[in-house]
Amino acid sequence: MNYQLYNLQLTNEEVLESTGSMISIFESLMDTNVAKDDIIDVGSQAPNFKLKNTEGDITTLKELPEGKKLLVFSSQNCPHCKDFYPKLGQFAKANKNVSIIIIQANASLSDIKQFSETSKYNFKILQANSDVFYDYNISATPTSILLDTNNAVLNSGVVGSYEQIEQLFF
After folding, report:
1. Nearest residue to 71 (alpha-carbon basis) of 79, 82, 80, 60
2. Mean pLDDT along residues 110-138
3. 146 and 159 in contact (C-beta within 8 Å)?
4. Cβ–Cβ < 8 Å for 167, 146
5. What is the 3-state secondary structure (H, E, C) of the chain?
6. Each residue of 126-161: b (16+ CB within 10 Å) or e?
7. What is the reported pLDDT for 19?
8. Full-prediction pTM beyond 0.70?
9. Residue 64: strand pairing partners
10. CA distance 67 to 116
11. With 0-12 CB in 10 A as exposed, 13-18 as middle and 19+ as buried, what is 70?
12. Would you state the pLDDT for residue 151?
């Protein structure tokens, strides 16, 4: 069978050969993406950020409550994130000594305000910008970063279950 691609006539073998080359290119690009262990270095100081809260006011990392913090990088369009919020809510109820901060991408201020008002969770929600995802090397959502009381990174990872959240603490 022959295929036509941009005025090129290709045979099955040529299509398979081209596809193999494209897969190799894709795999090499994937190798350059941030791996779980490369999200942000454990022990490093978490980069400060300036993000808008649900009221439109700027919030910085240094202004967040003292104590341990779990930064959860999410996206409004991410189905895994939506599935993760109830598990995160359970964790928050059981661990009141940890502040949960959602940093949500692809969301307007009205989106994060509506989520805050309609959800039953007690999360602080901030509107993400591209800088914060870059500074923290976030390439997938939901990604969580556990910070100590001095905002040093204790652990990080792409998480989706209650058990995975607990693993960040041990």
Report:
1. 60
2. 92
3. no
4. no
5. CEEEECCEEEEHHHHHHHHHHHHHHHHHHHHHCCCHHHCCCCCCECCCCEEEECCCCEEEHHHCCCCEEEEEEEECCCHHHHHHHHHHHHHHHHCCCEEEEEEEECCCHHHHHHHHHHCCCCCEEEECCHHHHHHCCCCCCCEEEEECCCCEEEEEEECCCHHHHHHHCC
6. bbbeeebbeebbbbebbbbbbbeeebebbbbbbbbe
7. 39
8. yes
9. none
10. 22
11. buried
12. 96
Amino acid type, 52: K
At 158, the amino acid letter reads V
Give the whole-angstrom CA distance, residue 59 versus residue 39.
22
Q: pLDDT value at position 37?
A: 45
* Token pair 């350059």: residue: 32
Confirm if 142 and 119 have CB atoms less than 8 A apart. no
CA–centroid distance for 169 within its chain? 18
User: Exposed, middle or buried, 34 (CB in 10 Å: 0-12/13-18/19+)?
Assistant: middle
d(CA 144, CA 38): 13
